[in-house]
TrEMBL record:
Family: Belongs to the anti-sigma-factor antagonist family.
A UniProt-annotated Pfam family: STAS
Annotated protein name in UniProt: Anti-sigma factor antagonist
Boundaries of every STAS domain copy: 14-114
Alphabetized PROSITE patterns for the sequence: STAS (PS50801)
Native species: Streptomyces niveus (Streptomyces spheroides)
Superkingdom of this protein's organism: Bacteria
Gene3D superfamilies on file: STAS domain
Coiled coil, from the record: none
Amino acid sequence: MTAFRLTAQHTDGDLALAHVAGELDVATAPELRAQALALIEQGHRHLILDLEAVTFCDSSGFNALVGIYRCAKTADGTLVLAAVPDRLGRLLDLTGLSTLLPAHPTSSHALVAHTRSQDSASA
């Protein structure tokens, strides 16, 4: 069985920061999607997924990220990635999805960017 873990580290109002670890593949992608959608359903429509500890991602994992993005958008939210491994980052760039799934170098950067975007939206 493929190792995978999603840990919600920070939940604050409509924002959740979750760390994803392990392999994202055909065996784990449905669980990634289910756990992320559960966060959205709990009212955390803005998600930051820290992917630093992701060791592998195939097309199933990639599709799960797209599905999570769509569900967040439907909930009038966002999906932002942090600490994206090089291989996955190149795949996002090659497919053009990096324009839909913005990435930040670290979770901290993503949190600051989220705070700034919320501050400018309320101004």
